[in-house]
UniProtKB/TrEMBL annotation:
Keyword Lipoprotein: no
EC number: 4.2.99.18
Family: Belongs to the Nth/MutY family.
Cofactor(s), by name: [4Fe-4S] cluster
Function: DNA repair enzyme that has both DNA N-glycosylase activity and AP-lyase activity. The DNA N-glycosylase activity releases various damaged pyrimidines from DNA by cleaving the N-glycosidic bond, leaving an AP (apurinic/apyrimidinic) site. The AP-lyase activity cleaves the phosphodiester bond 3' to the AP site by a beta-elimination, leaving a 3'-terminal unsaturated sugar and a product with a terminal 5'-phosphate.
Protein name: Endonuclease III
Gene3D superfamilies membership: Helix-hairpin-Helix base-excision DNA repair enzymes (C-terminal), Hypothetical protein, domain 2
Domain of life: Bacteria
SUPFAM superfamilies hit by this protein: DNA-glycosylase
One term of GO molecular function: endonuclease activity
Length: 215
């Protein structure tokens, strides 16, 4: 089986088990998605959704965040971790959106990554999930699952993004992220993958290697 054939089967199986998925971060507009994604670094989506429920009621626009009091915002997002940097970046990011982008969230990758605290992963979340632009998001689940499956040998998220873009058809770029997250949460759990009940086992080089080692 060639790598392309394997990818096609894996994508079909992921779709069959998890369906066309949607972004796990609650949002109603692009700036809410941008801020929620910034908050999600080193934090669970559930925790971010809990925090943004109140946060987006208090701050109802990019301008509100641009004018936020740093100490107050830090307190409000404290439970998401790395709150000092996150609060500082959110304020600086929103100030730049107001000053240079007329208060709109751009869809261009370079423009997005020029914003404070916005890397390729955050930019790709916004581009894919809000603007519908095919984008591969590499988070901790995608990194782990795609390595175990043998779809990449790289550990660097940007290299993994490019590896996946080469072998995954463009129309699947957005879904593969949310489906791999679902798989990483339910079955291919970090450090204790449930290979025995995994529908991807016949195609998974990492899972087969683990099974041999534990025999
Ligand atoms: S077979 Fe094991 S390692 Fe491979 S994807 Fe499934 S759970 Fe993860």
């Amino acid at each position: 089986m060639t790598k392309k054939e394997k990818v096609a089967v894996v994508l079909d199986l992921l779709l069959e088990h998890y369906g066309p998925t949607k972004c796990y971060l609650n949002h109603e507009n692009p700036w809410q998605l941008l801020i929620a994604t910034m908050l999600s670094a080193q934090c669970t989506d559930d925790r971010v959704n809990l925090v943004t429920k109140d946060l987006f009621q208090k701050y109802t626009s990019i301008k509100d965040f641009a004018e936020a009091d740093l100490a107050e915002l830090e307190r409000e997002i404290h439970s998401t971790g790395f709150y000092h940097n996150k609060a500082k970046n959110i304020i600086a990011c929103c100030q730049k959106l107001l000053a240079e982008y007329e208060g709109e969230v751009p869809s261009d990758l370079d423009a997005l990554t020029s914003l404070a605290g916005v890397g390729r992963k955050t930019a790709n979340v916004v581009r894919g999930n809000w603007y519908g632009i095919p984008s591969v998001v590499v988070d901790t689940h995608v990194k782990r699952v795609s390595n175990l499956l043998g779809l990449t040998k790289n550990q660097d998220p940007v290299k993994i993004e490019f590896d996946l873009m080469k072998i995954v058809p463009k129309e699947k770029w957005i879904d593969i992220n949310t489906q791999m997250i679902a798989h990483g949460r339910k079955i291919c759990i970090a450090r204790r993958p449930k290979c025995g009940e995994c529908f991807l086992f016949p195609y998974c080089t990492g899972g087969q290697k683990l099974a041999k080692e534990t025999k």
